[in-house]
Prior knowledge:
Oligomer: single chain
CATH class: Alpha Beta
Radius of gyration: 17 Å
CATH architecture: 3-Layer(aba) Sandwich
Shape: globular
Number of domains: 1
CATH topology: Rossmann fold
Strand order of the largest sheet: 6-7-8-3-9-10
Number of strands: 10
Helix content: 25-40%
Amino acid sequence: MFDVRNLNVAYGQSQVLHGINMTIAPGEIVAVVGRNGMGKSTLMKSLIGTMPTRSGQVTIDGTDITKLPSHTRVAKGLAYVPQGRQIFGTMTVRENIETGLVVTGKSEVPDEIYSLFPILWEFNKRRGGNLSGGQQQQLAIARALASDPKILLLDEPTEGIQPSIIKDIGRAISYLRGLKEMAIVLVEQYLDFAQELGDHLVVMDRGSIVYSCDKTNIDEGALKRALAI
């Protein structure tokens, strides 16, 4: 469903992503880990189109989206939950989620979204800025899901979140994988969380993939060495 081939990205003359390759099928989660500043969030921004690609190709269901603007990528089936959530603080929970409906032509928030995150139904008339950090993260994921995506990009969804909400987010991600309709790219700072959810684990260092392995074949020694580079 989602194919990234030899992706190279640069800030001006400084190249920051080097030949990234990644293929993800429906119902599969690829977890991307690595130290801070190693290019994980840059990868996500390049996939959603807020950073231009120097070379390489990104496709969804065989359709090349490499040169498309972000809003068109969303219409093609890509959804992005950025690091730091970036919800609309003055809008209600319902209004935030409804912004994700624009590309679908729907006007009503699907019940399934509230089933995933019941607290959002309870607080649907509350302003987003009045929610806790964990509730805002759930709202950001719900807004992305409202666009009915084929591929969901999650950039550090557990950052600054209390443990109970991390468990809720983990359960929601596992449920989405179980539907086998969506491919998920998860950038995560907590290795345990990444290993628990990821079907495939990728380690990034200085803009390159330095270790890649299926969940069932992880070499713990090689993984620790890659994370320590």
